[in-house]
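Our preliminary data section would be incomplete without showing what the modeling component actually yields. Below, a chain of 251 amino acids is followed by its predicted structure, encoded as tokens that our downstream tools consume directly.
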Amino acid sequence: MQASPGSAVQPSFEDPGIPLADVTFACVDLETTGGSRRHSRITEIGAVRYCRGERVGTFHTLVAPGLPIPRFVTYLTGIDDPLIRDAPEVESVLPSLIEFLGGAVFVAHNASFDFRFLNRDLVRVGYEPIPGPPVCTGKLARRVLGEDVPNVRLATLAQHFRTEARPEHRAWEDAEACAEVLHALLDLGGRLGILTLGDLRQACAPRARTRVARIGVTALPTRRRVYLFRRTSGRVRATTHTAAAVAPSAL
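Predicted structure:
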């Protein structure tokens, strides 16, 4: 097990106006014996901690799940019973992991799975759950990239951004790839107005809507006709048949 959380001071996340440049992120990936939080167990934990775009800590350990690893999981991850024979149990791992994650925003790809799975074990052992909501790089990619990628699988995004780390269905490699993807998405998101922690949480929320408050629109026509919204160059940006229902900044 390796853990080095770094020493950066983290602002309170109760303030949604915190600039993303001041936020510490912990990108986490779990490997498990299956997809059921009730019946499955963790077999590997990987995490990378970033502050102001720089890596300040890493965490990685195999975990003894206390039950046989299914063959299909071994085929997918390469983790089998002999590999985790001498690994610590999750009860021994959690104290170090809690310390590592302290003061950081929890990030994962398809984050609800890792977030709920880990919190299930924390509550079961007697710890407080990790506060949410987590940041999901999958949801953020849908918001930022749209149709620029065929899907938002971690492997697809890693290839799209040409990350150094490539997902391998192993916790350490996938956590590193998730961190690289996160920072690439934040760079693109900044151009779309995702600048604070509140912006990021809104972008990752279900059915996130385009922010239109930054551009004031007044005197929209009220008659029902075909209207053209043009860019400053004169090119048509969008059309609508409904007069006041659509603002050009939302298209």
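The helical segments are 71-77, 90-101, 111-125, 137-145, 154-161, 171-190, 197-204. The CA atoms of residues 95 and 243 lie 58 Å apart. Preliminary results of this kind motivate Aim 1 of the renewal.
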